[in-house]
Design goal:
With 138 residues, the chain is an alpha/beta fold. It is built from 4 helices and 10 strands; from the N terminus they run H-H-H-H-E-E-E-E-E-E-E-E-E-E. The protein is globular, with a radius of gyration of 14 Å.
Length: 138
């Protein structure tokens, strides 16, 4: 729940701890926040052994906005998606706090591992990923 509040404050520019009802109303008015909220719910389901529901939420995101955001990605609070269209975030991707993602972004899987053995990217804190960016690791 704390990450949802952090995400919400990125959209509302510092409004702290609104009611959950206001967050739901805002989610239905803002497409980017709606995708983030569905991802957070799917992430929670995935980590509480409700994998079928998590997969269903991933499919809802995909069919509404053509975004493939894996609920196995580790995304810190403060995620802001500007235009939720054609965004791909593969499983095991790590994204730090206060990241902004624009449309047509791919944070993908590479078949060749880097020196640490990772095949997916690690994005730091306070990063803005511009439209059309493609990043695979290594």
């Amino acid at each position: 729940m704390a990450k949802i509040y952090q995400d919400f404050t990125r959209y509302k520019y510092g409004k702290i701890h609104p009611s959950f009802f206001k967050i739901l109303i805002f989610a239905f008015r803002n497409k980017g926040f709606f995708v983030v909220l569905l991802f957070r719910l799917g992430y929670w389901c995935r980590h509480h052994h409700l994998s079928i529901l998590a997969g269903l939420l991933e499919r809802i995101i995909y069919h509404l906005y053509f975004c493939e955001i894996s609920t196995l990605a580790d995304i810190d609070g403060g995620l802001r998606i500007i235009h939720p269209l054609s965004i791909i975030i593969s499983k095991n991707t790590i994204i730090g706090q206060n990241c902004t993602i624009c449309q047509h972004v791919t944070l993908g899987y590479n078949f060749k591992a880097n020196a640490d053995g990772r095949k997916t990217p690690i994005i730091g804190d306070n990063v803005h990923i511009a439209p059309g960016a493609k990043y695979t690791s290594p």
